Amino acid sequence: MSTRRVAGPEIERLIQLLSKLPGLGPRSARRAALHLVQKKDQLLIPLAEAMGVAVDQVGICSECGTVDTCDPCTICSDPRRDGSTIVVVEDVSDLWALERASAVSAHYHVLGGTLSPLDGIGPDDLNISKLIERVENGSVKEVILAVNATVEGQTTAHFITDQLARFESVKVTRLAHGVPVGGELDYLDEGTLAQALRARTKF
After folding, report:
1. Angstrom distance (rounded) from CA 120 to CA 117
2. What is the mean pLDDT of the chain?
3. Can you give 37-67 as a three-state secondary structure string?
4. Nearest to 180 by CA among 166, 154, 199, 161
5. pLDDT at 9
6. What pLDDT score was predicted for residue 93?
7. pLDDT single digits (tens) 135-148
8. Does residue 118 carry a pLDDT above 70?
9. What is residue 137's predicted lDDT score, i.e. its pLDDT?
10. Its family (predicted)?
């Protein structure tokens, strides 16, 4: 028995596209689509206009690999940032997360993923060669590897560290891993606890 349609193909198409977004399943997509069409003037039309502008103007920064409406991007063009430090991240979402924390005012480099031989993702599939080029041609003193604490992330970090080993004046560091702020030891996994003990600091 086929599923009955409750709306025209245009609305069904909108629901299908919204359901492809991260965090939105079919049910959430239907709610979002309904909300958009019911608030057509306040939401749907401005959203359509904003997406049209994004299609025309958003691109990839040729320097760091993030997304922006200008090239070089806003971050790379900011003279107030410390150009001697590059923070390496897996994805643009990681860059945005670090920026929200306002913990560092440096330049970034987006890899576009992690090394994963099982998935056929090698060094040439990531934005690693451009990172080496930036270190080679610039006045970089420190490269901070802000990759995720996954097997793939750590494999990628080790590979990049090996590639940067020939630059003796460049310090390669990584984010500390351990007990999160507000975390309770009883709820943490063994790997996190072990890493926290190894990376302990003087109180």
Report:
1. 5
2. 91
3. HHCHHHHHHHHHHHHHHHHHHCEECCCCCCE
4. 199
5. 87
6. 94
7. 998 799 999 999 99
8. yes
9. 87
10. Belongs to the RecR family.
What is the Cα–Cα distance from 56 to 125, expressed in whole angstroms?
26
Helices 9-18/26-38 angle, 10° precision: 120
Task: Return the structure tokens found at 132.
Answer: 């080496």
CB 167 within 8 A of CB 142: no
- Say if residues 156 and 147 touch (Cβ distance below 8 Å): yes
- Residues 72 and 144: beta-carbon distance below 8 Å: no
Q: At what angle do helices 128-137 and 151-164 cross, to 10 degrees?
A: 30
**Residue percentage of the chain with pLDDT more than 70:** 96
**Can you tell me whether residue 77 is helix, strand or coil?**
coil
Residue type, 174: R
Rg (C-alpha) for the chain, rounded Å, is 22
Residue 2 has pLDDT above 60, yes or no: no
Cis check: omega of the bond before 22, within 30 degrees of 0? no
**Beta strand 142-145 pairing with 82-89:** parallel
DSSP 85: E
pLDDT of residue 57: 94
The answer to whether residues 162 and 139 touch, using CB atoms and an 8 Å cutoff, is no
pLDDT per residue over 48-57, tens digit each? 999 999 999 9
